[in-house]
Amino acid sequence: MEPLGPERRFGRRDLLRGAAAGTLWLSLGSTLAAACSRFQVTGASPVLARPGHPITWPIHAGNRPIASNLSPERGATLQILTWDQYVSPSVLKEFGKAFNCRVEVSTFFDMDEGVTKLRAGVVAADVFCPSVDVVDQLILAGDLRALNHSYIPNLEANVWPEFQSPFYDVDSRYSIPYAVYTTGIAWRNDLVGVDVASLANPYDIFWDPANKGYVYVLDDYREGLSMALLRRGISDLNTADTSEIERAGGDLVDLVDRVSIKWSLDDYTLLPEGQATVHQAWSGDMIEAPYYGKESANDTARTLSYWFPRNHRGAVGSDTLVVPARARNPVLAHAFLNFILEDRIAIQNFGWVGYQQPVKAITTDAVLSEFPWVGQPNMADCLVTPQDLALGYQELQLTPQVDVLWQLAWDQFQAGG
Predict the structure, then answer these.
(1) What is the pLDDT of residue 46?
(2) Which residue numbers in the chain have pLDDT < 70?
(3) What is the pLDDT of residue 32?
(4) Which of 285, 348, 357 is nearest to 320 (CA)?
(5) How far apart are CA 155 and CA 98, in angstroms?
(6) What is the structure's pLDDT at 110?
(7) Where are the domains of the chain?
C-alpha cells in the first residue's frame, strides 16, 4: 500500500454538484437555465432511470461498439478524465507498462465541469468517470460509445451481479461500475456525549445543541437535503414533492440557530483534527480519515465512529467509467476498463483511494488487510456491501424543474434562511 499523509486530498470529495460554501440566493430564471443545460436533447423529455424503471439504452449508428479482436493502439497516450487522485498512481503506472503506453490524467472540480470539458473537447478523453445520475444524459446526447464486452471479460467474472446489468444502464451497454459508497454520520466518540448509533433516530444528532459550533453537513445540496428527508422517514431522495423539499430545507435552516451549522467537504480532515465533532460523511472518506489525525492511524480510528443504517436503508451512491464517443484510443480504453476490474488491481486501487469498487474480491478480509480499523465496531459501517446498494436510496437525475426546487431550498439554507 502506498503511503498516505495529510497532504493528500481526494477529488471525489470536491464539490460533487457545484454547491459552494456561502452560496447566496440564485434567481429562479438563472437556476432553471443552469438545470436545463444538463439536458442536451432539444425537444425531448428527460428519460430518468430508476430502480423500478430500468432502461436498456439503444445503440445507434453513430455510437456502435468497436469491432472485436482489435489490438490496442500503438504508441498511444491514454487520456483519463476523472476526479483528482481517484485512481492509484501505481495502477496507472502498471497499466502503462503492461500496454506499452503513456497514461495522462486530467481532472475536474465538479461533475458539471467534467461534462463541459468532455463535450468541449478540452480533454480528448478516452475514459471518463461520470456519476450514475449523469450517465443517462450523456447517452441521450450521443456523448458515449457503446461498449464491446469481448474486451471486458472482468465485468462478468469479477463484478457484483447487480452491477453487471444495473437499472441505469441495462446490460451495461455504455458503462461499467467504478466506485460505490454510503452516506452516513461520522462523529468523534470521545467528544460527543452519546452513542449516535444507539439513538432512536440517529439523524437527530445534527439538531442536538450540545454539539453547537462543531456540527457539519456535507456541502452538497443533494446530500444535505437528503439527510433531512431521511430524518423525517422520507426515502424518496429524488422527490418532486414541493412540500417535502421545502420542509427539508426548512429543517436545515433550523440548524443555523440551533447548532450554528456549517457545511464542508472536509469530513475526512475536520473530524480527526477535532474541528468537527459531528459530520455528515461518505464511507470512503471515513476509511481514509484515520490517516489525518495527530496520532497513529489505528489510534485515531478509535476516536472516530461512522454510522450507516444496519438495515441498509440509507443514502448510497456510485460512479462509473465510460468510453467517450470521440475517444482517440477506444481499444486501449476498453483494455483499461477491463484492467481496473481485475481482482488484484481493484484491491490495489482501493488501498489508495479508499472508495470500494463493487468487485467480489474486495471482501471483508481484503478491506481489513488494507484498513485494519474497519474491523473495529465503531468503524465497521464503513464497509459497503451489495445489500447497501440493493436496499439503499440513490440520488439520481432530476428533471430540470425539480432540480430548481432542490437548489433553491439549499441556497435558502446556506443564506441562513
Answers:
(1) 64
(2) 1-46
(3) 44
(4) 357
(5) 19
(6) 80
(7) 47-179+321-362
User: Strand pairing of 77-82 and 175-188?
Assistant: unpaired
Q: Is 324 helix (H, G, I), strand (E, B) or coil?
A: strand
CA 222 to chain centre: 12
Nearest residue to 220 via CA among 169, 182, 264: 264
- The phi, psi pair for 179, rounded to 5°, reads -125, 150
DSSP 8-state class, residue 292: G
Question: Strand pairing of 215-218 and 278-282?
Answer: parallel
Q: Is 370 exposed, middle or buried (0-12, 13-18, 19+ CB in 10 A)?
A: middle
Grid coordinates belonging to 157? 467474472
Show the cell assigned to 312.
441498509
Q: Which of 108, 83, 81, 77 is nearest to 95 (CA)?
A: 77
CA distance linking residue 366 with residue 350, whole number of Å: 10
For CA atoms 240, 241, 243, 244, give the dihedral sign: negative
**Residue 110: closest CA among 14, 212, 6:** 14
Tell me the per-residue pLDDT of 26-57, one tens digit each, with 9 for 90 and over: 334 444 444 444 444 433 446 799 999 999 99
Burial 53-72 (b: 16+ CB within 10 A, else e): eebebeeeeebebbeeeeeb
Report the CATH architecture of 47-179+321-362: 3-Layer(aba) Sandwich (3.40)
8 Å CB contact between 169 and 57:
yes
Distance CA 302, CA 22 (A): 33
Prediction pTM value: 0.88
Question: How far, in Å, CA of 45 to CA of 368, rounded?
Answer: 46
CA atoms within 13 A on the CB side of 239: 21
- Cα gap 172→295, rounded to integer Å: 44
Q: Is 261 helix (H, G, I), strand (E, B) or coil?
A: coil
pLDDT at residue 343 in the model: 97
Q: What is the mean pLDDT of the chain?
A: 90
| Cα three-residue angle 231-21-132, rounded to 5 degrees | 60
